[in-house]
């Protein structure tokens, strides 16, 4: 029996909507908590790379400051840096298959005509942006004058030993660049590159002792990435030209490229090139054929940030030594920085070697390069950001131009008309694939012009 003060489970005397249902509130609270946990988990999943990177920077700075106070020996520092050395060695291990397979698969997936057009636009974009970056650095250096008043700085007084010495001629730098584009041995190009070195010969003549500098070519340690890039592009085009016979090799390199991407994700999830390819394709919607063809080339030849750094460093050293650069010297800096950034080695402090070439080209001493070496570790991070942004922007521009060209071609194919000709046959006798326009009830024995539209 129901109690007299209750009616159908509700308290008598109170409206139904004012009764609190405690049992219904508990699931709502638990659902809200689970929703917050899911949102937080999704946030961590989306930003795990950024969080780990920032945490690694903070921990690294803290450990570095603490270890610096301990005054470790060189042997102890080598042991402490061993994990980082292993990471760098693994990354260098996959550079060759990553660049070569990506370029071969990208070049083979593009049409030959579009490949030539896109390649020309890409090279023009890379050269123009590098020239603009170098010119911007020269203009800012002349306006801001970072080296003015810094003549008191002295490498010896600061206790920094100059570790970069070079006397390479500008002409030899360009010739070495051309020679490395055409390696005589592809196997050797995977771990060695061509470079010009000099030796001094002392001759005893009737006029006295004469010193002569003679240049000679030699192979130095370091991958000849330019030669491998050119070979990969040519091989991809050749496989595309073979047609069905080259499909097997194209599929092989495509699978090799995907496997290399997986290796990179295992070794280092934030490596520049594979991560850039992934996010440009997934987030920005760039065609895979364009991204996998353009980005490896851009990562090799498009060094806008390096060009800015090199030109600014040259202006800084010139101003620090009290040298006023003329128009000819500025033009030399502009051209040398642009050409040298194309073949710059992708190694730590590799840009400092290019600065040495620029200083020699304009006749400035290279002793002050030790000052640049002291800050290269932090400047290298900022130049990498500029380089990556330039490559990504170039891929986006080429994707937009490619889409525009494809749309124009489709529009032209859909509106192909044949010239009007006399209608000498009746509609029943003409091809069923031809559509007649502007026809009326006029007898068929009268010749009428017809406009024929192709089914294409």
Task: Provide a descriptive summary of the structure in words.
- This protein is mainly alpha-helical and 456 residues long.
- The chain has four domains: 6-46; 48-80; 88-409, Sodium:dicarboxylate symporter (Proton glutamate symport protein, Orthogonal Bundle); 416-456, no CATH class.
- Helix content is 63%, strand content 8%.
- The protein contains 16 helices and six strands.
- It has helices at 22-46, 48-70, 74-80, 82-93, 95-109, 112-144, 170-181, 186-189, 225-242, 247-267, 272-282, 288-301, 304-320, 327-342, 350-361, 369-414, and strands spanning 6-7, 10-11, 192-205, 208-221, 421-422, 449-450.
- The strands form three sheets. A two-stranded antiparallel ribbon has the order 1-2. A two-stranded antiparallel ribbon has the order 3-4.
- Helix 5 (95-109) packs across helix 10 (247-267), helix 9 packs antiparallel against helix 12 and helix 11 runs antiparallel to helix 12.
- The longest helix is centred in the last third of the chain and has 46 residues, at 369-414.
- Residues 428-456 are annotated as: Disordered.
- InterPro entries: DAACS, Na-dicarboxylate_symporter, Na-dicarboxylate_symporter_CS, Na:dicarbo_symporter_sf.
- It comes from Hymenochirus boettgeri.
- It is a multi-pass membrane protein.
